[in-house]
Write a structure and sequence with these properties.
The chain is mainly alpha-helical. It has 2 domains: 44 residues, 434 Repressor (Amino-terminal Domain) (Orthogonal Bundle), CATH 1.10.260; 122 residues, HAD superfamily/HAD-like (Rossmann fold, 3-Layer(aba) Sandwich), CATH 3.40.50. Helix content is 45%, strand content 9%. A 3-stranded parallel β-sheet has the order 3-4-5, sandwiched between helices. It has a two-stranded parallel sheet with strand order 1-2. Strand 3, helix 7 and strand 4 form a beta-alpha-beta unit.
Length: 186
């Protein structure tokens, strides 16, 4: 979702600093290492930050057109995110993309181990009774691609800079959602 269907606006370094978490280590993993009472407090602060970011979210160019194309062609659409469920819904609503996703099709850190674990992708596929080999995970970061690969899905790396830093986890690389839509017709 963030950085894929929406513009990437998270400043993870600033968030770690504000939460007093170690530099360079993923936020959720840092929080998991804390004593429970401290983790609860930091998770609430993280949620507050992410709701603020959700309110400012904007859709990537061509996100709605891509989702309409996929929906028209009978594809099931889902979100697997490291965000909380409510935050994901707020982000999609701010972008005007919420109509494409049911509550059951949004898999968050609240209901599955967060990416890069494949659990969220597997849960979504299970809910749909779909095999991984007929699914595609689209993402802008290593954790998305790794989760998709580990779940057995094909992966598409959306990298607007065209650097494609994770080739070992990437089946296809695209620089825009418009390019991804064009792959549908190939």
């Amino acid at each position: 979702m963030d950085g894929t269907l929406t513009h990437a606006i998270h400043d993870f370094d600033a968030m770690r600093k504000d939460l007093k978490l170690p530099a360079g280590k993923p936020i959720l993993e840092s929080i998991a290492d804390l004593p429970e009472d401290e983790a609860i407090k930091i998770n609430q602060q993280l949620d507050d930050m992410e709701y603020d970011i959700a309110d400012k979210a904007t859709a990537q160019p061509h996100a709605e057109e891509l989702l309409l194309l996929l929906e028209k062609n009978g594809c099931k659409l889902g979100i697997v995110t490291r965000n909380g469920h409510g935050i994901a819904k707020a982000t999609l609503k701010a972008c005007g993309l919420d109509a494409f996703f049911t509550s059951q099709s949004i898999i968050s850190r609240d209901c599955a181990c967060p990416k890069p674990a494949p659990d969220g992708v597997q849960l979504l596929l299970s809910r749909w009774s779909v095999n991984a080999d007929s699914s595609v995970m689209v993402g802008d970061y290593l954790f998305d691609l790794e989760a998709g690969k580990r779940a057995g899905a094909s992966t598409v790396h959306l990298d607007v800079n065209g650097e494609f830093a994770f080739p070992e986890f990437t089946d296809y690389g695209v620089t825009s959602l418009q390019t991804l839509a064009a792959l549908w017709y190939e």
